[in-house]
User: What shape does this take?
Amino acid sequence: MPFKTRGWEIESRATDVEEILQMEEIPVFFKRSVGRGRVFTLGFDFGLLLVGLQQGIPVKGTRRLQKLFGTQSRVIEPEDLVVKASLLDNSIPWADLFERFLFKVITQDEPVPRWWYFPHPYTGAVISTHDDEAIGADPRLEAMCEKEKSEGIRGTLFVISDQKLHERWSRNGTLEHLSQEGTEIGLHWNRFEKPRFKLRSYKWGMHEEPLSQQMEYLEKELGQSIRMNRTHYLALGRTYDDHFKSLSAQGIFFDSTYGPNQGGRGYLFGTGYPYQGLTWDGELTGVLELPFLTQELWGGADLPFLEKLIRESDENFHQVVTMNFHPHYTILGEEGRRAWLGSLRFAKERKQWIPTLGEFFYFF
Assistant: This one.
Protein backbone atom coordinates (compact mmCIF):
# COMPACT_ATOMS: atom_id res chain seq x y z
CA MET A 1 0.00 0.00 0.00
CA PRO A 2 1.45 3.42 -0.93
CA PHE A 3 1.67 5.56 2.20
CA LYS A 4 3.58 8.27 4.00
CA THR A 5 3.52 8.59 7.76
CA ARG A 6 5.58 8.79 10.94
CA GLY A 7 6.33 5.58 12.81
CA TRP A 8 7.62 4.82 16.27
CA GLU A 9 10.05 1.99 16.84
CA ILE A 10 8.92 -0.52 19.46
CA GLU A 11 11.99 -1.52 21.43
CA SER A 12 10.30 -4.29 23.40
CA ARG A 13 6.85 -5.66 24.14
CA ALA A 14 5.27 -8.12 26.54
CA THR A 15 4.83 -11.71 25.44
CA ASP A 16 1.02 -11.40 25.57
CA VAL A 17 0.96 -8.53 23.04
CA GLU A 18 -0.29 -9.79 19.68
CA GLU A 19 1.19 -8.32 16.50
CA ILE A 20 -1.53 -7.65 13.92
CA LEU A 21 0.13 -5.66 11.14
CA GLN A 22 3.54 -4.76 9.73
CA MET A 23 4.51 -1.91 7.40
CA GLU A 24 7.74 -2.34 5.48
CA GLU A 25 8.55 -5.26 7.81
CA ILE A 26 8.10 -3.08 10.91
CA PRO A 27 5.40 -4.06 13.45
CA VAL A 28 2.90 -1.18 13.73
CA PHE A 29 -0.43 -2.53 15.02
CA PHE A 30 -0.86 -4.50 18.26
CA LYS A 31 -3.55 -5.99 20.48
CA ARG A 32 -3.42 -6.95 24.15
CA SER A 33 -6.14 -8.38 26.36
CA VAL A 34 -6.58 -6.54 29.64
CA GLY A 35 -9.19 -7.99 32.00
CA ARG A 36 -12.42 -8.32 30.01
CA GLY A 37 -11.33 -5.78 27.43
CA ARG A 38 -8.70 -5.28 24.76
CA VAL A 39 -6.17 -2.53 24.12
CA PHE A 40 -5.16 -1.72 20.54
CA THR A 41 -1.98 0.24 19.83
CA LEU A 42 -0.87 1.93 16.63
CA GLY A 43 2.85 2.43 16.13
CA PHE A 44 2.40 5.07 13.43
CA ASP A 45 0.58 8.35 12.76
CA PHE A 46 -2.73 7.11 11.38
CA GLY A 47 -4.04 10.65 10.80
CA LEU A 48 -1.05 11.59 8.67
CA LEU A 49 -1.33 8.37 6.67
CA LEU A 50 -5.01 8.91 5.93
CA VAL A 51 -4.79 12.64 5.14
CA GLY A 52 -1.68 12.06 3.04
CA LEU A 53 -3.52 9.52 0.89
CA GLN A 54 -6.81 11.43 0.61
CA GLN A 55 -5.79 15.09 0.42
CA GLY A 56 -2.20 14.62 -0.64
CA ILE A 57 1.12 15.84 0.67
CA PRO A 58 2.96 18.91 -0.71
CA VAL A 59 6.41 18.47 -2.14
CA LYS A 60 9.07 18.76 0.60
CA GLY A 61 6.34 19.11 3.21
CA THR A 62 5.97 22.87 2.75
CA ARG A 63 2.62 24.65 2.74
CA ARG A 64 3.30 26.27 -0.62
CA LEU A 65 2.48 23.89 -3.48
CA GLN A 66 4.96 22.90 -6.18
CA LYS A 67 4.79 20.95 -9.43
CA LEU A 68 5.52 17.25 -9.18
CA PHE A 69 3.62 14.70 -11.30
CA GLY A 70 0.99 16.88 -12.98
CA THR A 71 0.99 17.39 -16.76
CA GLN A 72 -0.47 20.93 -16.82
CA SER A 73 2.38 23.45 -16.54
CA ARG A 74 0.01 26.39 -15.96
CA VAL A 75 -1.42 25.17 -12.67
CA ILE A 76 -0.79 23.18 -9.52
CA GLU A 77 -3.20 20.28 -9.89
CA PRO A 78 -4.22 17.27 -7.76
CA GLU A 79 -1.72 15.01 -9.54
CA ASP A 80 1.01 17.12 -7.92
CA LEU A 81 -0.13 16.05 -4.45
CA VAL A 82 -0.34 12.25 -4.69
CA VAL A 83 1.78 10.42 -2.12
CA LYS A 84 3.57 8.22 -4.65
CA ALA A 85 3.71 8.04 -8.45
CA SER A 86 2.19 4.55 -8.39
CA LEU A 87 -1.14 6.09 -7.35
CA LEU A 88 -1.43 7.85 -10.71
CA ASP A 89 -2.60 4.51 -12.15
CA ASN A 90 -4.44 2.79 -9.35
CA SER A 91 -7.63 0.75 -9.19
CA ILE A 92 -7.56 0.02 -5.43
CA PRO A 93 -9.10 2.39 -2.82
CA TRP A 94 -6.27 1.95 -0.32
CA ALA A 95 -7.40 4.58 2.18
CA ASP A 96 -10.91 3.14 2.49
CA LEU A 97 -9.71 -0.45 2.70
CA PHE A 98 -7.23 0.43 5.43
CA GLU A 99 -9.89 2.26 7.46
CA ARG A 100 -12.22 -0.71 7.13
CA PHE A 101 -9.46 -3.11 8.13
CA LEU A 102 -8.75 -1.24 11.35
CA PHE A 103 -12.45 -0.94 12.16
CA LYS A 104 -13.03 -4.65 11.52
CA VAL A 105 -10.13 -5.73 13.72
CA ILE A 106 -11.14 -3.46 16.58
CA THR A 107 -14.82 -4.45 16.48
CA GLN A 108 -14.53 -8.15 15.58
CA ASP A 109 -15.26 -9.30 19.15
CA GLU A 110 -17.85 -6.57 19.84
CA PRO A 111 -19.67 -5.78 16.57
CA VAL A 112 -20.87 -2.20 16.16
CA PRO A 113 -24.01 -1.60 14.03
CA ARG A 114 -23.60 1.00 11.30
CA TRP A 115 -25.42 2.35 8.28
CA TRP A 116 -24.73 0.82 4.88
CA TYR A 117 -22.88 2.99 2.35
CA PHE A 118 -25.80 3.36 -0.09
CA PRO A 119 -29.59 3.22 -0.23
CA HIS A 120 -30.95 -0.33 -0.16
CA PRO A 121 -30.30 -2.52 -2.15
CA TYR A 122 -27.34 -0.89 -3.95
CA THR A 123 -23.78 -2.18 -3.57
CA GLY A 124 -22.07 0.79 -5.22
CA ALA A 125 -22.64 4.06 -7.04
CA VAL A 126 -21.64 5.56 -10.39
CA ILE A 127 -21.84 9.31 -11.06
CA SER A 128 -21.63 10.99 -14.47
CA THR A 129 -20.18 14.51 -14.42
CA HIS A 130 -19.30 17.01 -17.12
CA ASP A 131 -17.46 20.36 -17.40
CA ASP A 132 -18.95 22.87 -19.86
CA GLU A 133 -15.69 24.81 -20.48
CA ALA A 134 -17.72 27.91 -21.44
CA ILE A 135 -19.35 26.42 -24.56
CA GLY A 136 -22.75 27.42 -23.19
CA ALA A 137 -25.99 26.37 -24.89
CA ASP A 138 -24.17 24.32 -27.48
CA PRO A 139 -25.90 21.54 -29.50
CA ARG A 140 -23.21 19.09 -28.35
CA LEU A 141 -23.98 19.77 -24.71
CA GLU A 142 -27.72 19.57 -25.32
CA ALA A 143 -27.31 16.23 -27.12
CA MET A 144 -25.24 14.86 -24.24
CA CYS A 145 -27.86 15.81 -21.65
CA GLU A 146 -30.70 14.47 -23.78
CA LYS A 147 -28.90 11.16 -24.28
CA GLU A 148 -28.37 10.69 -20.56
CA LYS A 149 -32.00 11.59 -19.94
CA SER A 150 -33.11 8.95 -22.46
CA GLU A 151 -31.04 6.41 -20.52
CA GLY A 152 -32.84 7.36 -17.32
CA ILE A 153 -29.74 9.10 -15.96
CA ARG A 154 -29.25 12.58 -14.52
CA GLY A 155 -25.73 13.98 -14.91
CA THR A 156 -23.99 16.86 -13.14
CA LEU A 157 -22.70 19.78 -15.24
CA PHE A 158 -20.11 22.26 -13.94
CA VAL A 159 -20.51 25.63 -15.64
CA ILE A 160 -17.93 28.39 -16.10
CA SER A 161 -19.46 31.64 -14.86
CA ASP A 162 -18.50 35.17 -15.87
CA GLN A 163 -19.97 38.36 -17.37
CA LYS A 164 -20.70 36.54 -20.64
CA LEU A 165 -22.61 33.69 -19.00
CA HIS A 166 -26.05 34.96 -20.01
CA GLU A 167 -24.88 35.62 -23.57
CA ARG A 168 -23.56 32.04 -23.91
CA TRP A 169 -26.77 30.54 -22.59
CA SER A 170 -29.31 32.70 -24.43
CA ARG A 171 -28.48 31.41 -27.91
CA ASN A 172 -30.39 28.11 -27.91
CA GLY A 173 -32.05 27.96 -24.51
CA THR A 174 -31.43 28.79 -20.91
CA LEU A 175 -29.44 27.28 -18.11
CA GLU A 176 -32.54 27.36 -15.93
CA HIS A 177 -34.42 25.25 -18.49
CA LEU A 178 -31.59 22.72 -18.63
CA SER A 179 -31.76 22.42 -14.85
CA GLN A 180 -35.53 21.97 -14.93
CA GLU A 181 -35.10 19.19 -17.48
CA GLY A 182 -33.04 17.23 -14.97
CA THR A 183 -29.37 18.17 -15.38
CA GLU A 184 -27.77 19.18 -12.08
CA ILE A 185 -25.71 22.40 -12.19
CA GLY A 186 -22.59 23.28 -10.25
CA LEU A 187 -19.90 25.96 -10.57
CA HIS A 188 -16.77 25.45 -12.67
CA TRP A 189 -14.63 27.94 -10.73
CA ASN A 190 -12.17 29.67 -13.08
CA ARG A 191 -8.96 30.71 -11.30
CA PHE A 192 -7.09 31.95 -14.37
CA GLU A 193 -6.30 35.66 -14.41
CA LYS A 194 -8.05 38.04 -16.79
CA PRO A 195 -7.11 41.56 -17.93
CA ARG A 196 -9.15 44.54 -16.79
CA PHE A 197 -8.15 46.31 -20.01
CA LYS A 198 -7.08 44.87 -23.36
CA LEU A 199 -5.90 46.47 -26.59
CA ARG A 200 -4.94 44.00 -29.29
CA SER A 201 -2.20 41.87 -27.74
CA TYR A 202 -1.62 44.25 -24.80
CA LYS A 203 -3.21 43.47 -21.44
CA TRP A 204 -3.39 45.48 -18.23
CA GLY A 205 -4.66 44.83 -14.74
CA MET A 206 -4.43 41.04 -14.70
CA HIS A 207 -6.59 39.66 -11.88
CA GLU A 208 -8.49 36.58 -10.77
CA GLU A 209 -12.22 37.22 -10.77
CA PRO A 210 -13.48 36.68 -7.20
CA LEU A 211 -15.19 33.38 -6.48
CA SER A 212 -18.10 35.30 -4.95
CA GLN A 213 -18.64 37.18 -8.22
CA GLN A 214 -18.59 33.98 -10.28
CA MET A 215 -21.15 32.47 -7.92
CA GLU A 216 -23.35 35.56 -8.22
CA TYR A 217 -23.42 35.40 -12.03
CA LEU A 218 -24.38 31.71 -11.98
CA GLU A 219 -26.97 32.00 -9.23
CA LYS A 220 -28.67 34.88 -11.05
CA GLU A 221 -28.77 32.96 -14.32
CA LEU A 222 -29.94 29.73 -12.67
CA GLY A 223 -32.34 31.22 -10.20
CA GLN A 224 -31.05 29.20 -7.28
CA SER A 225 -28.10 29.08 -4.89
CA ILE A 226 -24.91 27.19 -5.74
CA ARG A 227 -23.22 24.94 -3.20
CA MET A 228 -21.20 22.60 -5.44
CA ASN A 229 -17.97 23.08 -7.40
CA ARG A 230 -15.29 21.61 -9.60
CA THR A 231 -12.44 23.97 -10.41
CA HIS A 232 -11.45 24.68 -14.02
CA TYR A 233 -8.23 22.85 -14.98
CA LEU A 234 -8.34 21.43 -11.41
CA ALA A 235 -6.27 24.45 -10.31
CA LEU A 236 -5.67 24.21 -6.55
CA GLY A 237 -4.10 27.60 -5.95
CA ARG A 238 -0.76 28.35 -4.35
CA THR A 239 -0.99 26.78 -0.89
CA TYR A 240 -2.10 23.46 0.57
CA ASP A 241 -5.36 24.76 2.04
CA ASP A 242 -6.14 27.61 -0.37
CA HIS A 243 -8.67 25.56 -2.30
CA PHE A 244 -10.78 24.37 0.64
CA LYS A 245 -10.61 27.59 2.65
CA SER A 246 -11.73 29.65 -0.36
CA LEU A 247 -14.71 27.38 -1.03
CA SER A 248 -15.71 27.28 2.62
CA ALA A 249 -15.59 31.07 2.92
CA GLN A 250 -18.19 31.39 0.13
CA GLY A 251 -20.51 28.67 1.40
CA ILE A 252 -19.59 25.98 -1.14
CA PHE A 253 -19.52 22.76 0.84
CA PHE A 254 -19.50 20.09 -1.88
CA ASP A 255 -16.53 19.76 -4.22
CA SER A 256 -15.17 17.31 -6.80
CA THR A 257 -11.89 18.86 -7.96
CA TYR A 258 -9.50 16.17 -6.75
CA GLY A 259 -8.87 13.58 -9.44
CA PRO A 260 -6.76 12.81 -12.51
CA ASN A 261 -6.01 15.34 -15.21
CA GLN A 262 -4.23 14.02 -18.31
CA GLY A 263 -1.68 11.89 -16.45
CA GLY A 264 -3.70 9.49 -14.32
CA ARG A 265 -6.68 7.23 -13.76
CA GLY A 266 -8.38 5.56 -10.84
CA TYR A 267 -8.07 6.13 -7.09
CA LEU A 268 -5.28 8.72 -7.07
CA PHE A 269 -6.28 9.61 -3.51
CA GLY A 270 -7.12 6.14 -2.27
CA THR A 271 -10.86 6.74 -1.96
CA GLY A 272 -14.14 7.00 -3.80
CA TYR A 273 -15.86 8.60 -0.81
CA PRO A 274 -16.15 12.19 0.42
CA TYR A 275 -13.77 13.42 3.10
CA GLN A 276 -13.49 16.71 4.94
CA GLY A 277 -10.92 19.09 3.48
CA LEU A 278 -8.38 20.22 6.07
CA THR A 279 -6.37 23.39 6.54
CA TRP A 280 -2.59 23.30 6.90
CA ASP A 281 -3.11 23.41 10.68
CA GLY A 282 -5.44 20.41 10.61
CA GLU A 283 -8.72 22.27 11.06
CA LEU A 284 -11.89 21.09 9.32
CA THR A 285 -13.07 23.45 6.58
CA GLY A 286 -16.59 22.03 6.30
CA VAL A 287 -16.02 21.23 2.60
CA LEU A 288 -16.70 17.63 1.54
CA GLU A 289 -14.39 16.51 -1.26
CA LEU A 290 -15.46 13.61 -3.49
CA PRO A 291 -12.58 12.66 -5.81
CA PHE A 292 -13.51 11.67 -9.34
CA LEU A 293 -11.70 8.65 -10.77
CA THR A 294 -11.46 9.19 -14.52
CA GLN A 295 -11.43 12.09 -16.98
CA GLU A 296 -12.09 11.47 -20.65
CA LEU A 297 -9.88 8.61 -21.91
CA TRP A 298 -6.81 10.19 -20.37
CA GLY A 299 -4.32 8.01 -18.57
CA GLY A 300 -5.77 4.94 -20.30
CA ALA A 301 -9.26 5.28 -18.80
CA ASP A 302 -11.06 3.30 -21.53
CA LEU A 303 -14.24 1.25 -21.24
CA PRO A 304 -12.54 -1.93 -19.94
CA PHE A 305 -10.91 0.09 -17.15
CA LEU A 306 -14.20 1.77 -16.23
CA GLU A 307 -15.99 -1.59 -16.22
CA LYS A 308 -13.27 -2.95 -13.94
CA LEU A 309 -13.78 -0.10 -11.46
CA ILE A 310 -17.55 -0.61 -11.47
CA ARG A 311 -17.37 -4.40 -11.22
CA GLU A 312 -14.87 -4.37 -8.34
CA SER A 313 -16.91 -1.70 -6.58
CA ASP A 314 -20.02 -3.86 -6.90
CA GLU A 315 -18.36 -7.08 -5.76
CA ASN A 316 -15.69 -5.97 -3.29
CA PHE A 317 -14.93 -2.32 -2.61
CA HIS A 318 -18.42 -0.68 -2.56
CA GLN A 319 -17.29 2.69 -3.86
CA VAL A 320 -18.55 5.77 -5.69
CA VAL A 321 -17.13 5.67 -9.22
CA THR A 322 -17.26 9.29 -10.38
CA MET A 323 -16.41 9.97 -14.03
CA ASN A 324 -15.85 13.20 -15.97
CA PHE A 325 -16.62 13.56 -19.68
CA HIS A 326 -16.70 16.92 -21.49
CA PRO A 327 -19.64 17.45 -23.89
CA HIS A 328 -17.39 18.69 -26.70
CA TYR A 329 -14.47 16.30 -26.48
CA THR A 330 -13.97 12.53 -26.57
CA ILE A 331 -17.66 11.58 -26.42
CA LEU A 332 -17.90 12.91 -29.99
CA GLY A 333 -15.61 10.10 -31.11
CA GLU A 334 -16.47 6.41 -31.24
CA GLU A 335 -14.12 5.28 -28.46
CA GLY A 336 -15.02 8.13 -26.13
CA ARG A 337 -18.75 7.67 -26.68
CA ARG A 338 -18.39 3.95 -26.03
CA ALA A 339 -16.57 4.63 -22.75
CA TRP A 340 -19.15 7.22 -21.61
CA LEU A 341 -22.37 5.39 -22.48
CA GLY A 342 -20.92 1.89 -22.14
CA SER A 343 -19.86 2.51 -18.54
CA LEU A 344 -23.29 3.92 -17.61
CA ARG A 345 -25.10 1.00 -19.22
CA PHE A 346 -22.73 -1.42 -17.48
CA ALA A 347 -23.53 0.28 -14.17
CA LYS A 348 -27.24 -0.23 -14.83
CA GLU A 349 -26.64 -3.91 -15.65
CA ARG A 350 -24.79 -4.31 -12.35
CA LYS A 351 -27.72 -2.58 -10.61
CA GLN A 352 -25.57 0.24 -9.28
CA TRP A 353 -27.03 3.47 -7.91
CA ILE A 354 -26.60 6.32 -10.44
CA PRO A 355 -27.35 9.58 -8.59
CA THR A 356 -26.20 13.09 -9.40
CA LEU A 357 -23.26 14.38 -7.42
CA GLY A 358 -25.57 16.50 -5.28
CA GLU A 359 -27.95 13.61 -4.63
CA PHE A 360 -25.10 11.50 -3.33
CA PHE A 361 -23.70 14.30 -1.17
CA TYR A 362 -27.07 14.91 0.46
CA PHE A 363 -27.52 11.17 1.09
CA PHE A 364 -24.02 10.92 2.53
Summary: The first strand starts at residue 18 and ends at 23. The CA atoms of residues 5 and 293 lie 24 Å apart. The radius of gyration is 22 Å. The chain is about 30% helix and 20% strand.
